[in-house]
Amino acid sequence: MSTVFEDIVPSLNLCKQIPADEFDYSIFVWCTELPYDPGHHSQKIVLPRCAATEDQMVAPAPTAEEILDKLIYELKSPTMTSCMDGYTVTSFDTALEDIQEKHEKLAEAALRLWLRLNGDDDEQDL
């Protein structure tokens, strides 16, 4: 079973790269579909955080709005602004290219940008 929520959040593989305690306020989470059967591979779905149990939760699933809000907040911080001047423009351009060339979801491109700006420079994973 899949839900429409998968269309508005980044992929599970990308969300698994989010460091612990980041986006823990996100309204959606990637979850193991119930009923959970330890002997079988369970499908992962996106659910509203309020509808998921702690045992089901696999990773936060932030929306584009949540990611962009966090990016804007972090880019306004004195530390980020002083060390990211040239890189910020390049990263935003790259994110826009990702959306245009790959027809990528906004949430996917925004999370890739956030991960890049927060120290995950492994382009292969992003």
Keywords:
126 residues; alpha+beta; three-stranded antiparallel sheet; 4 helices
Sketch the major β-sheet. Answer: 3 strands, antiparallel
Oligomer: single chain
Number of strands: 3
The number of domains is 1
| CA(first)-CA(last) distance | 27 Å
Low-confidence stretches: 81-86
Question: Taking Cα atoms only, what radius of gyration do you get, to the nearest Å?
Answer: 16 Å
Helix proportion range = 40-55%
Shape: globular
Description:
This protein has four helices and three strands. By secondary structure, it is α+β, with helices and mostly antiparallel strands. The chain has a three-stranded antiparallel β-sheet with strand order 2-1-3, with no helix packed on it. The longest helix has 25 residues, at 78-102. Residues 81-86 have low confidence and may be disordered.
Please outline the helices and strands.
Elements: H1 12-15, E1 28-32, E2 44-48, E3 57-60, H2 64-76, H3 78-102, H4 106-117
Antiparallel strand pairs: 1-2, 1-3
Helix pairs in contact: 2-4, 3-4
